[in-house]
Amino acid sequence: MHEFSAACSIVDTAIEAAKNNNATKVSVVHVEVGEFTFLVPEQLVFNFEIARKNSVLEDAELKIKTIKGRLKCDDCGFEGESKVNPDIPAQVAVFAPMKCPQCGGSSTKIAGGKDFVITSIEAEVSKSTAG
Ligand SMILES: [Zn+2]
After folding, report:
1. CATH code of the domain covering residue 43
2. What is the model's pTM?
């Protein structure tokens, strides 16, 4: 239930942000999901729709932007986007050491793309007279 805990965390954060901004209804939640989180966007949306029930996010739409993973190579100092070998199925590639796109070495570390973040929230704010 990887996606479910991620969805709950997104919902909790969005509810908190809505509260802090006196929002009465959240319409869109934008998230950036790193490649190395291995979250499936369709699954994330599905679980988001379960997790948001009876909250200000009831009618909110989850917009997901996938961010490329970043690798750092100890052999040549390369740091940048990972290149997925199209010959290796994704399910296998997850467990295989990722080769450096520059020198081909396998002394690589994941340098980014392991997180998911809420980048922005679109919400309706209740009209205030103090404005
Ligand atoms: Zn390298």
Report:
1. 3.30.2320.80
2. 0.79
Query: Could you tell me the distance, in angstroms and rounded to a whole number, from the CA of residue 115 to the centre of ligand 1?
Result: 23
Report how far ligand 1's centroid is from the alpha carbon of 21 (Å): 46
Q: Total structural domains in the chain?
A: 1
Tens digits of residue pLDDT in 120-129: 999 998 776 5
By residue range, what is the domain housing residue 108?
Answer: 2-125
Ligand 1 centroid, distance to 101 Cα (angstroms): 7
3-state secondary structure 16-76: HHHHHCCEEEEEEEEEEEEHHHCCCHHHHHHHHHHHCCCCCCCCCEEEEEEECCEEEECCC
